Amino acid sequence: MNTIKKKYKILFGDKMINNNWDLVLEKQYEKPYFKNLSKFIKDEYINKTIYPKYSEIFNSLKYTDYDSVKVVILGQDPYHGENEANGLSFSVKKEVKTPPSLRNIFKELQNDLNIERKNPDLIDWAKQGVLLLNSIMTVIKDCPLSHKNKGWEIFTDIIIKELNDKKTPVVFILWGNYAKSKKNLITNKRHFIIESPHPSPFSANRGFFGSRPFSRTNDFLQKNNLEKINW
Questions:
Q1: How many CB atoms lie within 10 A of CB 18?
Q2: Is 77 a catalytic residue?
């Protein structure tokens, strides 16, 4: 096996995440769909420019262990611009220009909680229990939704179902029609769903602005004796 292929062999395996997600998802790792997805993704990284970096694909799960999830913000697929994606939905690397949707998220954050945020890397949210999950975890450079229907949606739907079974309350933030389409997976009455139009410039003025997702999330967490998120 050449060095390049060996590099892309190490991520998909028995312990991909190295926290409790591996226990929650271990049955998925052995299923045919996931083995096919694994092979497809490795081949894509070898032959094309794919985002995020191979080592960052599962950052959302690595930074937010199953047991620590308090909030889920669901995206569709990663940013497809050069070096933008970092494995967390809506988040980009610190040195990258803030994308329009994220700028609108920060505008709503300021209007909602009077917090002026500049850093577009949302890793601090992830470390506090905000699972920043993209339903499709990889993308070809400059080709949005290019890895749609390759198996990622099966895997991430399982993640949502596992969180639905969680014994502690979780806030699910669903922005836009795609995220709202996952609402049927969230059936447990202990959880709280916040839904609104997408923060994209095309839809933010149709109900995203003024939806107050950050204060509503913290109010719910506080009522359930869970620590609030420092947004």
A1: 11
A2: yes
Q: Determine contact, residues 166/145, Cβ cutoff 8 Å.
A: no
Low-confidence stretches of the chain (pLDDT beneath 70):
1-10, 13-14
- Tokens representing 181? 């389409």
Q: What is the pLDDT of residue 13?
A: 66
pLDDT for res 1: 44
Instruction: State both tokens at 17.
Output: 């995440």
* 3-state per-residue secondary structure call for 46-77: HHCCEECCHHHCCHHHHHCCHHHCCEEEEECC
d(CA 182, CA 27) in angstroms, rounded, equals 22
| DSSP state letter for 205 | G
SS3 133: strand
14, 65, 67, 77: which one is catalytic?
77
pLDDT digits (tens, 9 = 90+) for 109-141: 999 999 999 999 999 999 999 999 999 999 999
Residue 94 is encoded by which pair of tokens? Answer: 């610190």
* Strand locations in the chain (E): 50-51, 71-75, 130-134, 139-140, 171-175, 192-196
In order of their start, the domains of the chain are: 3-223 (3.40.470.10)
pLDDT at 12 (0 to 100): 78
